[in-house]
Amino acid sequence: MSTPAGNDYDRVAYPSMAHPQTFVDNLSVKGFLRGLNVAHPGSCRVLELGCGDGFNLAAMAALHPGSSYTGIDYAGEAITRGRAMMEDLGLKQVRLEQADIRKLDALSPSLGQFDYIMAHGVYSWVPEEVREALLATLGRLLAPHGIGFVSYLALPGAHLREMVRTIIRFHTRDTDNMEDKVEQARSVLKMISDGSMMPNHYTQWITDELKNIDTHMGSSLYHDELSSISAPLLFTDFLKHASQHGLEYLSEAECLTPVSRALSDTAREQLKPLESNRILLEQYLDFIEGRRFRQTLLCRPGLCRALDYTRLDELWIHCRCKRLNPDKLLTDEGTLDFEGLKKAELRAGTPATKAAMLVLAEHREEALPFPELLKAARARLLADKCEPAPDFDMELRMYFTRACVPGLVQFTWGPLSSAKEIPERPLAHPLARWGIAKGAPTGFSYGGSFVEVNGGLGKHLLSLLDGTRDHATLAAEMRRYLAQLHQEAKSNGETPTSPAPDDPALEQQLQRSLKGLAQLRLLRRS
Ligand SMILES: C[S@@+](CC[C@H](N)C(=O)[O-])C[C@H]1O[C@@H](n2cnc3c(N)ncnc32)[C@H](O)[C@@H]1O
């Protein structure tokens, strides 16, 4: 295959990121519950289109080394970087190819079919013929029970994003330099946000956009919001396009069922006639919520069924939430409230859901087999002298499939691979240790949440967690490192800012740090 011309992603590297919503664990569970005969994450074939340096595939391969992974991207620099990363990490099951999605035909015969194909952050940012080739590739290479993941900008919400894009692209039109463009983009939005003597909903909206954009890394702002191409579309138009390539809607990557966070009773009533048409319901929810981004799962026509609640018995459930009203009892009036990641909230209002959520909150660091949750919730109710209702099991099955939203409730095929307790000889996630050893950006995601380790001490500790050192050795090595930092500060005539090497609280601090890393899912079972 001829080498594609260099592109903007070679000039300005896109940040290395893992996206747990694209992981085969998530895709397989979504397909399984809707009747597909899915390939198990531990033995499947995965293709990622527009994979960048393959960091996402590396994170998946670290979880499921028995599967095989292929990544395609036309940014040569990213592929070279990614290949070196796979080599360093010993991930021989990840193959990265520099190729243009439009010209995959030449590569196709040797590619074979795939159980999972994902394209994250590509569809709406590439020319029309690439969008066409992307879905055609899915249509051609997806296995009969395979699942495709495509994310894209959705209308109507993306119109609002376009407004900001128009402003920042105009304002930065005369500069090519990434840092300058990003700085100017942020500053023009700040001027609008701060500049009006009569703030109105336009300036308020720009202020909110600025807050949002300020959380983006410069290079992703450059490639995403400042991109020369932006092609948002309606959810239903995306599905029309997918159907031209023999692909049908399965569900969203985040939710199994159409979910709206905030619907009035009147709106709920008005949307009732749409309940039998999941696709139209999704479309109208986009209108109501002003949705701007979708992560849609696709499969072969005729396979997607109504949710099969009995299949939950083959899965495990995990809910990393904390109670918001811990003094309330199961038998008290009103709801028991729980908070997951990113302030996602879950309310339990019935005896069955309250009991089940209490069980899950007690097991927040681990996954439970779903039938065990049903049993434990029933026992919990009986202990409080409440008789479970006849539809107890079904109520919980429906409640948890509705709550199956990132940061709240997650179904898995088995126990979580990250450690719940701190192991005797802690082992950090291989990508975390690799990132630190290589001075790569230390933001990554392992078990679901995005993690950034910025402090020097945290980074040094992570680099020591290779599964060979026990806690006493770790403490001794951290003391040696602190002594070195103090020595360096002294020779530079500076006052040391790190704790003293003989600080008696160091062991306790070490335990706290290890617990923090375990909670961030950065420690693996060795
Ligand atoms: C916004 S980045 C997304 C990277 C990664 N999927 C992620 O979400 O972190 C888009 C990627 O698509 C790649 N890309 C764009 N057009 C392509 C094409 N025609 N063929 C192959 N890759 C392409 C770019 O090189 C870039 O790495």
Keywords for this structure?
globular; 17 strands; 20 helices; 14% strand; 526 residues; Rossmann fold
Can you describe what's shown?
This protein is an alpha/beta fold and 526 residues long. The chain folds into four domains: 8-153 and 232-299, Vaccinia Virus protein VP39 (Rossmann fold, 3-Layer(aba) Sandwich); 157-223; 310-412, no CATH class; 427-524, no CATH class. It is 43% helix and 14% strand. It is built from 20 helices and 17 strands. The chain has helices at 8-11, 24-33, 55-63, 76-89, 108-111, 128-141, 157-171, 178-195, 201-214, 218-223, 235-243, 265-271, 278-289, 351-362, 370-383, 392-402, 430-437, 456-464, 471-491, 506-519, and strands at residues 45-49, 68-73, 94-98, 114-119, 142-153, 248-252, 293-299, 316-318, 322-323, 336-339, 345-348, 368-369, 410-412, 427-428, 443-445, 450-452, 523-524. The strands form five sheets. It has a seven-stranded mixed β-sheet with strand order 3-2-1-4-5-7-6. Strand 1, helix 3 (55-63) and strand 2 form a beta-alpha-beta unit. Helix 14 (351-362) packs across helix 15. The radius of gyration is 25 Å and the shape is globular. It binds S-adenosylmethionine. S-adenosylmethionine binds next to strand 2.
